[in-house]
Amino acid sequence: xxxxxxxxxxxxxxxxxxxxxxxxxxxxxxxxxxxxxxxxxxxxxxxxxxxxxxxxxxxxxxxxxxxxxxxxxxxxxxxxxxxxxxxxxxxxxxxxxxxxxxxxxxxxxxxxxxxxxxxxxxxxxxxxxxxxxxxxxxxxxxxxxxxxxxxxxxxxxxxxxxxxxxxxxxxxxxxxxxxxxxxxxxxxxxxxxxxxxxxxxxxxxxxxxxxxxxxxxxxxxxxxxxxxxxxxxxxxxxxxxxxxxxxxxxxxxxxxxxxxxxxxxxxxxxxxxxxxxxxxxxxxxxxxxxxxxxxxxxxxx
Length: 301
Fold this sequence. Notes:
It is built from twelve helices and ten strands. The protein has helices at residues 16-26, 77-93, 105-112, 124-131, 135-145, 158-169, 193-209, 212-221, 226-232, 234-243, 249-276, 289-299; strands spanning 5-9, 29-34, 55-56, 59-60, 63-64, 97-102, 117-119, 175-177, 184-190, 281-285. The strands form three sheets. Strands 5-2-6-1-9-10 form a six-stranded parallel beta sheet, with helices on both faces. Strands 3-4 form a two-stranded antiparallel sheet. The chain has a two-stranded antiparallel sheet with strand order 7-8. Helix 7 packs across helix 11 (249-276), helix 9 packs antiparallel against helix 10 and helix 10 runs antiparallel to helix 11. The longest helix has 28 residues, at 249-276.
C-alpha cells in the first residue's frame, strides 16, 4: 500500500509524543496533534503539552493543532478535520512526512476512516429562537432529533446543545467536504496496565508540583466558568471542584487519578474498535524508537 500518513497512537502516559517527535526528526516529518484539549491556549500543564519534547538535539520539530484557539472558543470534530487537512496539505507540499499523534479516539478515527463531515450554514434566526428555551427543554429537543449522542458532556452547555440541534435539523442538506483519501501506516504504543497506572500517578504528582492548580486558577481569573472547566474534563474538572471547595486536596487527587486510569481504559476501547473495523495497528511495547523506525522503513517506503 502507498501510505501518505504515519499515525502514532496509544493511551495516555505511554510516551507516544516523545516517540513521534524522535521519528519525525529522523524521517524529516512534522507533527499533527490529535488531542482534543491541546488545541487550547494557556492550558499547558493539565493537557500535557510538554512543548520541550518537540526539540531533539537542539532541533525544533514543527507541530500543528496545538495552541490554536482560546479556551472560551468552541472546538469540535468538524474544526479538527478542517485544521488537520490544512496542516496535512502544508506538510506534504514541503515534501515532509505528516505524523498524526495523539490519543483522542474520535479524532483519530475520523481521519483514519475518512469521515465526510457536513458544513452547516448556521441559521442565526433559528439560533435566537432556540436561545429563548431553557437548557432542559433544549436537551429534550436534541434527544428527539438524535437518539444516540456521542458526547453527553455537551448537554451541560447551552450553546453546544443549540448548535447540535441546528446541525441535526440540517442533516441531509448543506455542503459535504470530501478530502483526499488518507492511507495511514499506524503504530500503536502500549504498556502493561499496571505500568500505565504507575506512569499516570507519577505524572499527576509532577504536574501538580509544577503548577497545575495555578494554571486552573488563572483560567478562572480570566473568566472561564466552572461549567467550562467541567466540560474540559479530567484535570480541569476535578481541580475546578477542588477550587470551588467541593473536594479537599486528597479527595481531588484520588478521584482525578482514578478518572485518568479509567480514561486510559476507554482509549484502548477506541483502538480495539478501530482494529475490529479493519484499521491495521502495528503495536509496539513502550516507546521503542528502533522498533517503530523499523516498522516505518519496512512498510512506509
